């Protein structure tokens, strides 16, 4: 087909794409745009190659270089193969590992990626079944491969897919690897010979690690679980849903490993389903809206605890029946407090040396672990947002002799009544055998904690209150505003940095001096007023906005932009001392401060910001 859009550069890109793409459906999509002269759509699709975001590619499955499809997967993997050959002399002996979830095209994408590697004589461990994302970082560590790839879009809508990359240490890739893989991909856009042949499973360089990894993974979990008779004899009933994802058989094996009675499955969601047919969003972070069927199943079966994984089983949501008959869906921060307490309790029982124990949380998560660490005497570290940072830092600390007990990223959006209807970030890393969030092992540890609390006449909710009574209430509130004008976003943050009409003069208080700011950290320009030299300890990035205000009364408030959405997010937490036992008063103070922070710092009316949809 002749290509003449009036833009020679666009014409060249489209002609190359049609020449290279062997997927008839995708080719037809582009050809239809040419027939209707939809130049605007073509220009948008061909403007740039799909770029690495959070450790990989993710996007809608459609034709064109800025979307997820056969050709972009081939191109990305050709670039990755070339880059691995540059980085490692032994990549042709150690190879890579590839897994995939149950989304549309995941299996095919995994096989096409495999073909690119074996074309360069790089061996591939290709799983023969759908696996949870945590299996890939675990496999990289255990099989000592040079990289790992998981084909998944996690909890994105059904139209999306993704390509998540792990480096030789098992952690998600960070710079410069993401940038270098993209650069090598741009040098290898034309598919290699046999690139479209996805019949790779019988190839001499391809092997299936499933049985071996199952054994290794659950051997590790077996050593971490108590596996005592309480687990088998408990009257506690667990209801479980994988939300149409891959988690069911793996959580089943985890329950068997830890000697639990079988969970009660949410039958309508227990099998992988790329349509995610019973939910609006396949994301347990959305709280009640995604858990409706689980709540109904639990109620029918007199079950008091609900466990839910997201479709690739790296996140965990939990709900517990209350004496009132209502259900409490725990926020990520609350689960972080519970699992952190449990992992410390278990380590202490095993005689863990406090001086060599460590826990990690991201900047936007509750600082409950920091408070516990200060009280109990182990190390706490804060990292940038995302498990790629927490895992990489954890692996560094492990090399320094620390035992990594736990890491998490969690937050809480505004609760409506007792049932939290919207959550953010429910990722947990129990130990560092999997240097990433792991919803399978987290489900096992959470269940064992619930069993042992029940044996003592307590509950998850009850233990959470005990934690806050001992260490002080940590009350959080997270939300965001939409802003589609980058100039407005820049103006908001520059005003905060030049509050007194001079650089690095930030607001000193809220409400006319009622609440005093004692410190400011700006990870956009690298400033931290709390450090003797005024320089931030964490990595900085001028391409994103992120300022944290530390108040004298214990409030930490972070305002940041989203890397993928037109949002200005704010994460707040008020840390009260243990003698402040009135949680309602702590909550009232937080609410007042957050409202003032929004009004005075973000100025939503002046800046015409759009509130988060309820």
From TrEMBL:
Its cofactor is Mg(2+). Pfam families: PGM_PMM_I (PF02878), PGM_PMM_II (PF02879), PGM_PMM_III (PF02880). Its main location: cytoplasm. GO terms for biological process: glucose metabolic process; purine ribonucleoside salvage. GO terms for cellular component: cytoplasm; nucleus. Keywords: Carbohydrate metabolism, Cytoplasm, Glucose metabolism, Isomerase, Magnesium, Metal-binding, Phosphoprotein. GO terms for molecular function: magnesium ion binding; phosphopentomutase activity. It is found in: Cytoplasm. It comes from the Eukaryota. Residues 50-181, 226-319, 332-465 form the Alpha-D-phosphohexomutase alpha/beta/alpha domain. Belongs to the phosphohexose mutase family. PANTHER family: PHOSPHOGLUCOMUTASE 2B-RELATED, PHOSPHOMANNOMUTASE 45A. This is Phosphoglucomutase-2.
């Amino acid at each position: 087909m002749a290509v003449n859009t009036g833009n020679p550069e666009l014409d060249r890109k489209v002609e190359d794409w049609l020449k290279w793409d062997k997927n008839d459906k995708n080719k037809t999509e582009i050809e239809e745009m040419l027939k209707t002269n939809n130049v605007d759509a073509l220009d948008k699709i061909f403007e740039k190659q799909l770029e690495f975001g959070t450790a990989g590619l993710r996007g809608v499955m459609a034709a064109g270089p800025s979307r997820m499809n056969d050709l972009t997967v081939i191109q990305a993997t050709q670039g990755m193969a070339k880059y691995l050959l540059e980085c490692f002399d032994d990549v042709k002996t150690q190879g890579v590992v590839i897994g995939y979830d149950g989304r549309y095209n995941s299996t095919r994408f995994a096989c096409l990626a495999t073909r690119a590697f074996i074309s360069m004589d790089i061996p591939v461990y290709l799983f023969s079944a759908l696996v949870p994302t945590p299996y890939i970082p675990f496999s990289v560590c255990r099989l000592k491969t040079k990289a790992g790839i998981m084909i998944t879009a996690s909890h994105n809508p059904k139209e999306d897919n993704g390509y998540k990359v792990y480096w030789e240490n098992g952690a998600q890739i960070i710079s410069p690897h993401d940038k270098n893989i993209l650069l090598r991909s741009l040098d290898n856009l034309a598919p290699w010979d046999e690139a479209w042949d996805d019949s790779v499973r019988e190839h001499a360089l391809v092997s299936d690690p499933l049985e071996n990894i199952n054994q290794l993974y659950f051997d590790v979990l077996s050593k971490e679980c108590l596996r005592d008779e309480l687990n088998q004899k408990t009257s506690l009933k667990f209801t479980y849903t994988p939300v149409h994802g891959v988690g069911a058989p793996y959580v089943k094996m985890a329950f068997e490993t830890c000697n639990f009675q079988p969970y009660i499955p949410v039958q309508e969601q227990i099998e992988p389903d790329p349509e995610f047919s019973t939910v609006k969003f396949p994301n347990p972070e959305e709280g009640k809206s995604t858990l409706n069927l689980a709540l109904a199943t639990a109620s029918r079966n007199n079950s008091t605890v609900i466990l839910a994984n997201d479709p690739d089983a790296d996140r965990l949501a939990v709900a517990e029946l209350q004496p009132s008959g209502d259900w409490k869906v725990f926020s990520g921060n609350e689960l972080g407090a519970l699992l952190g307490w449990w992992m410390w309790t278990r380590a202490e029982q095993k005689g863990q040396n406090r001086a060599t124990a460590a826990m990690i949380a991201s900047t936007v998560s509750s600082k409950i672990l920091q408070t516990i660490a200060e009280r109990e005497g182990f190390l706490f570290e804060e990292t940038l947002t995302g498990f790629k940072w927490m895992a990489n830092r954890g692996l560094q600390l492990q090399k320094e002799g620390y035992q990594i007990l736990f890491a998490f990223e969690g937050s809480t959006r505004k609760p409506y009544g007792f049932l939290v209807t919207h959550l953010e970030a429910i990722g947990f890393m129990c130990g560092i055998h999997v240097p990433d969030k792991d919803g399978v092992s987290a489900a096992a540890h959470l269940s064992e904690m619930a069993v042992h609390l029940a044996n003592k006449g307590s509950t998850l909710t009850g233990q959470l209150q005990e934690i806050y009574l001992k260490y002080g209430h940590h009350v959080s509130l997270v939300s965001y505003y939409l802003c589609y004008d980058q100039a407005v976003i820049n103006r908001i943050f520059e005003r905060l940095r030049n509050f007194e009409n001079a650089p690095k003069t930030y607001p000193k208080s809220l409400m006319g001096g009622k609440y005093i700011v004692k410190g400011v950290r700006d990870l956009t320009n690298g400033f931290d007023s709390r450090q003797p030299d005024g320089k931030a300890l964490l990595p900085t990035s001028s391409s994103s906005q992120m300022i944290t205000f530390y108040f004298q009364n214990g409030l930490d408030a972070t305002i940041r932009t989203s890397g993928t959405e037109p949002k200005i997010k704010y994460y707040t937490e008020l840390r009260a001392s243990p003698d402040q036992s009135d949680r309602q008063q702590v909550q009232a103070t937080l609410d007042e401060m957050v409202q003032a922070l929004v009004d005075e710092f973000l100025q939503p009316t002046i800046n015409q910001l759009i509130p988060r949809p309820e």
